[in-house]
């Protein structure tokens, strides 16, 4: 392998990450090499691969790194505005790609795709976020929206706002979703009361609440599966 102290541009062409990716495919590159392509440049005394390796080590991998916002990334040594913007863009592209996959899907027939999206979009949020997924008569997803955001352990939820959102989306059914930043998915008594209130409000406009999901650390709780709905 080329001398890590040298600029990547001075490496033999066959050893440069970008050229290797194009010639051998993405799977031929290490995590640090893939990240180096996004970062484009290193910092003084450290090439892009070494910087990528340091960032992944410091943050424990891609998941934690790509969950960081501008403030946290700005505190990270070696990251300027251009690199921060690239990382934020990569994170958002990942979320939007997964979101595109769920539109038109049936939650009943393909729950894995929906859960993959919910994990990426909610599991690392530091505050509780209440999301509503809107479905049509065929139980196909036609949209989703974050309606409420709260503190680390609660979010104020207003059933009338959910009813308005349902009407705006012309939905006939909804799935309620919120995260628990603690990572634990057991519902609180408040979660149960809020769910009952939303179900009652949606009944006034003939809209079904198909489930209420709580998202934790790569796990979920389903009110329907638990017999609570």
From TrEMBL:
Belongs to the UPF0758 family. GO terms for biological process: proteolysis. Residues 107-229 form the MPN domain. Transmembrane segments: none annotated. Keywords: Hydrolase, Metal-binding, Metalloprotease, Protease, Zinc. GO terms for molecular function: metal ion binding; metallopeptidase activity. This is MPN domain-containing protein. It holds the Pfam family UPF0758_N. The keyword Cell cycle does not apply.
């Amino acid at each position: 392998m080329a001398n890590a102290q040298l600029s990547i541009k001075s490496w033999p062409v066959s050893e440069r990450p970008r050229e290797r990716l194009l010639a051998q495919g993405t799977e031929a590159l290490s995590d640090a090499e893939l990240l180096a392509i996004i970062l484009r440049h290193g910092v003084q005394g450290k090439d892009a691969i070494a910087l990528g390796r340091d960032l992944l080590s410091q943050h424990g991998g891609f998941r934690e790194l790509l969950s960081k916002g501008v403030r946290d990334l700005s505190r990270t040594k070696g990251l300027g505005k251009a690199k921060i913007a690239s990382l934020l863009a990569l994170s958002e592209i990942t979320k939007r790609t997964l979101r595109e996959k769920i539109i038109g899907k049936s939650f009943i027939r393909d729950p894995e795709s929906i859960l993959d999206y919910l994990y990426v979009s909610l599991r690392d949020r530091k505050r509780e976020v209440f999301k509503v997924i809107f479905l049509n008569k065929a139980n196909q997803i036609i949209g989703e929206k974050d309606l409420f955001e709260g503190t680390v352990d609660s979010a104020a939820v207003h059933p009338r706002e959910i009813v308005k959102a349902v009407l705006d989306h012309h939905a006939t059914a909804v799935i309620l979703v919120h995260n628990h930043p603690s990572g634990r998915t057991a519902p609180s008594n408040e979660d149960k009361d809020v769910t009952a209130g939303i179900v009652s409000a949606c009944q006034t406009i003939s809209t079904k609440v198909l489930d209420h999901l709580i998202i934790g650390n790569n796990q979920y709780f389903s009110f329907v599966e638990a017999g609570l709905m």
